[in-house]
Design goal:
Radius of gyration: 24 Å
Strand order of the largest sheet: 3-4-2-1-7-9-10-8
CATH topology of the largest domain: Carbamate kinase
Mean pLDDT: 91
Helix content: 25-40%
Number of strands: 18
């Protein structure tokens, strides 16, 4: 029997009502499951703050640990009436919090945060979530096994903070550690190196870890339970008549996630493409009504009449402009720049060059790092640096976008009608996406104009594109 791998995010686990919805969702399946969980809402940020304060000697570690203990215990008491289960939970919670306390004390003594300990500490958000959910299900007579990534063999390349799953090793190990008759609860967000070191899979990486486990088990599906109505044609806070998208390809979903959609981690589709395992998006608020996916992501290419299926955006981009006569064609300038940025742990999002300017897209945080450290000052041929923030990256996504005549013209004409200036355009880097950059103050109007052009005037309804 093929497993369904299901994943619940932190927003699903933030209170008693959320946990009840999770329980209802699990009951819909009526079969053993592999369940992957994120940290409780806000816990990852709380842990990051704690390790930073501990390194400065400013954290009351006992008080911090007691706060977490009280939070988890309150949730258990709200959801469990069996005194024996509560006692058993307390014992296991004490063990994990003592381990967490030990890592915080180590940081305090070092006055520093080594990457290995950083990853260990942040993994405790998920380790505590899996503990809570496991006991809540036991109270409801749903027998389950809590299984850690280090126990099942989710092996990574060993890179701290942003590891990649080693599928050659993991596909060999993981199936050996599962029995089809049992339900498993697994903390997401991390795996282990070949040496047994905890390595995080990147911020928001629980989706990716769930997808990786699904691929290794040849699962029937990866089901992501979210507190949103699946993928929509635009952000409903900006476009009030945004419509549901019932079907996306892996590539479309990955591009939407990369360019600002918060529904899934951009790497989630990656492990599933070759094995054609579908991703199904469910609304946790509708869990009482059975299994009704709002969006299905698979390898089936569907082309809407209007081509564009969704308009996404992100405000977390900045532009590093490297000016100089001939920087775009002089050998070595771009290579030296990217090497220096890589050494500093700077992730390059995109590069667009011209004769006199190299435009490098970075996250806002990384742009600030480059500016503060003046990282590229010694590269010959660059005579001016420009740092541009307060921008929005707008992405239009859909199969056939780069091959259908006239789509780009309609898109940019729609923006021009409102007198909105486009700073940079990238067309053709992906076969399913075009993106461009506008001033942040123009973001909402840009999204609305594109949506008006391709969904209202086109009379397109993406929930029919299946």
């Amino acid at each position: 029997m093929a497993y369904n791998v299901i994943k619940f995010g932190g927003s699903n686990l933030k209170d008693k009502d959320g946990i009840k919805k999770v329980f209802k969702a699990i009951c819909n399946y009526e079969k053993p499951l592999v369940i992957v969980v994120s940290a409780f809402y806000g816990m990852t940020n709380y842990l990051i703050e704690s390790l930073e304060l501990s390194a400065q000697g400013k954290l009351d570690i006992d008080h911090f640990i007691q706060n977490i203990n009280n939070q988890k215990l309150a949730i258990i008491v709200e959801n469990i009436s069996n005194e024996n289960l509560i006692f058993e939970f307390k014992q296991e919670l004490d063990k994990r919090l003592n381990m967490l306390k030990g890592f915080l004390l180590e940081i305090k003594n070092l006055n520093d945060v080594p990457n290995s300990i950083y990853d260990e500490i942040l993994s405790y958000g998920e380790r505590l979530s899996s503990l809570v959910l496991s006991f809540v299900l036991k109270q409801a007579d749903i027998q389950n096994v809590e299984a850690f990534p280090e126990e099942i063999g989710l092996i990574t390349d060993g890179e701290f903070k942003n590891a990649t799953v080693d599928f050659e090793l993991s596909e060999h190990e993981i199936p050996k550690n599962f029995e089809s008759s049992k339900t498993y609860i697994i903390p997401g967000f991390y795996g282990v190196s070949k040496e047994g070191k905890t390595t995080l899979l990147g911020r928001g990486g629980s989706d990716y870890s769930a997808a990786s486990i699904a691929a290794c088990l040849n699962a029937e599906s990866l089901d992501l339970w979210k507190d949103v109505k699946g993928f929509l044609s635009a952000d409903p806070k900006i476009v009030f008549d945004a419509v549901n998208i019932e079907s996306l390809t892996y590539a479309e979903a990955a591009e939407l996630a990369y360019f600002g959609s918060q529904i899934l981690h951009p790497r989630t589709p990656e492990p599933l493409v070759e094995k054609k395992i579908p991703i199904r998006i469910f609304d946790i608020n509708d869990s009482i009504n059975g299994l009704h996916p709002l969006t299905i992501i698979n390898g089936k290419e569907t082309v809407c009449d209007g081509i564009i299926k969704s308009v996404s955006y992100s405000d977390n981009f900045g532009i590093l402009k490297l000016h100089g006569s001939g920087v775009g064609i002089k050998p070595g300038i771009l290579a030296k720049s990217t090497v220096e940025l890589d050494k500093a742990g700077i992730n390059i999002k995109s590069v667009i060059t011209s004769q006199t300017t190299i435009n490098i897209l970075l996250s806002q945080d990384d742009l600030l790092k480059v500016k503060k450290a003046n990282l590229l000052k010694d590269i010959h041929g660059i005579n001016q640096f420009e740092f541009i923030s307060n921008i929005s990256l707008i992405a239009a996504v859909g199969e056939g976008l780069t091959s259908r005549y006239g789509v780009a013209g309609r898109l940019f004409t729609a923006v021009a009608r409102k007198g909105i200036n486009i700073q940079i355009i990238s067309f053709g880097a992906s076969s399913v996406a075009v993106y461009f950059i506008v001033n942040q103050v123009d973001r909402n109007e840009t999204v609305r104009e594109i949506h008006e052009e391709f969904f209202v005037k086109q009379d397109c309804c993406c929930d029919a594109c299946v």
